[in-house]
Design goal:
The protein has 417 residues and is an all-alpha fold. The chain contains 16 helices and no strands. α3 runs parallel beside α6. The longest helix has 31 residues. It is globular and about 60 Å long. The two termini are 35 Å apart.
Length: 417
């Protein structure tokens, strides 16, 4: 390949990476801004917190259970066909939330929007990008993960819309904007790259070593991964960290600050700080390539635990620095957890069926994400306090760090391929 052709190819890959980063940022923002819609919906329609949090739980569980299917659809039909369909499904169902007045209507619309999100979410996007970035997938995945933090920054924009135009008009504007902006660009930029990659070629390209594990997993049996203890450790780590811990923080952080006496705009700014530091944490995931996945994962869990304990210490709105410090620590810690987890999964399970394995791990995340926010809201409705929910977050992080230690240390002693 000539130098000019290589430069053009590299430039195209950068354009695609920037575009899919934007897709994920806007797509996740439609789901993650739920925390600022949450109080407005409850205030007008008088739902309980637990019942309203089920909207988010349905979103998470539908997203997770659709992940294996969405990855397969992109493999079969290509991102250029699947992503616009997902955008239309998600944007239109979100816009229709303006007409919802009952819990069932919200449940149905959030469920449908999650189907759309699964078609443009992490699994199909990472599957598409993995074919373009064969030598720098770690860097590409870190950039993709930071899009989740960027989506949280848009919570401030959603709060402005709600305060000025009401939550119903905010739903409509965000849903329609998403469709109009993303669909035409995706049809222009994305190319068909869903041809099946031979396993022999994949093996040749992916011979990589890290400090913490030797990468050498190429199993031709499609569902053999279900027989390995490593997969189930990763499944439960995703359930505990990405599901229970992370989603409780995302859904209830704004409402907790409101309960403590902080005004809605300050709470939205704190949530945006969480998103900004989430990006920062994601971009530092490369440290796990040098110091090992296990060490960085445990450090990230520890940082998150400190951030949660700072929330427990908040008792009055005059304690302005506590929510700021807590949001910074939680954003950095949570931002590191997800990419390090999936990098570790890739270390042990990359190969012909990695998309299926990654999507199946997402099911663990979705179950935890469905149970966690609802249970936190249920506890608050009963006890008028989030303290027990916060201690559940701490326990989940401690157990996840222990499971990661077991998985890595046992893997190094007993090579299971």
């Amino acid at each position: 390949m000539s130098i000019n052709k290589r430069k053009k190819k590299d430039f195209y890959k950068c354009i695609v990476l920037a575009f899919v980063f934007l897709i994920l940022s806007l797509g996740y923002s439609i789901r993650n801004t739920f925390s600022v819609f949450y109080p407005a919906i409850i205030e007008e329609l008088k739902f309980s917190r637990a019942d309203t949090a089920i909207m988010f739980s349905i979103s998470i569980i539908m997203y997770g259970f659709m992940a294996p299917l969405s990855g397969g659809l992109v493999d079969s039909y290509g991102a250029k066909k699947i992503i616009p369909i997902g955008v239309i499904i998600m944007g239109s169902s979100y816009a229709l939330c303006r007409y919802a007045n009952t819990q069932i209507q919200f449940y149905i619309l959030y469920g449908i929007s999650s189907v759309g999100l699964s078609l443009i979410g992490w699994t199909p996007i990472s599957t598409y990008i993995s074919h373009l970035f064969t030598k720098t997938r770690g860097l590409a995945f870190g950039i993709l993960n930071s899009s989740f933090g960027a989506s949280i920054l848009l919570a401030y924009f959603a709060q402005v819309l709600i305060l000025n135009y009401g939550w119903r008009n905010a739903y409509t504007f965000m849903g329609i904007f998403f469709i109009i902006f993303i669909v035409p660009i995706s049809m222009i930029i994305l190319k068909e790259n869903h041809k099946k990659i031979k396993e022999s070629k994949l093996n040749k390209e992916n011979k990589v070593k890290t400090n913490n594990v030797e990468i050498n997993y190429f199993d031709k049996s499609k569902f053999n991964f279900l027989k390995t203890y490593q997969f189930w450790f990763f499944f439960f780590i995703a359930f505990l960290t990405l599901g229970i811990a992370e989603q409780i923080i995302i859904v209830h952080q704004v409402y907790f600050l409101k309960d403590m006496g902080f005004n809605p705009m300050f709470s939205a700014k704190i949530y945006s700080i969480f998103g900004l530091t989430f990006i920062f944490g994601s971009l530092w995931t490369f440290l796990s390539d040098y110091y090992g996945r296990e060490k960085i994962f445990i450090v990230a869990c520890s940082v998150c635990i400190i951030g949660v304990m700072l929330l427990v210490l908040i008792k009055k709105p005059e304690q302005i620095m506590l929510p700021i410090l807590s949001s910074i620590l939680l954003g950095c810690g949570v931002g590191i957890l997800s990419p390090v987890l999936f990098a570790t999964i890739a270390d042990l399970f990359h190969g012909q069926h990695f998309g299926l394995i990654q999507g199946t791990v997402f099911v663990g995340f979705s179950v935890g994400g469905a149970v966690g926010p609802w249970f936190a809201g249920f506890i608050h409705d009963k006890l008028n306090s989030y303290n027990i929910a916060f201690f559940i977050v701490v326990a989940s992080l401690l157990l996840s760090a222990f499971l990661m230690h077991l998985c890595i240390s046992f893997h190094l002693r007993h090579k299971y391929y």
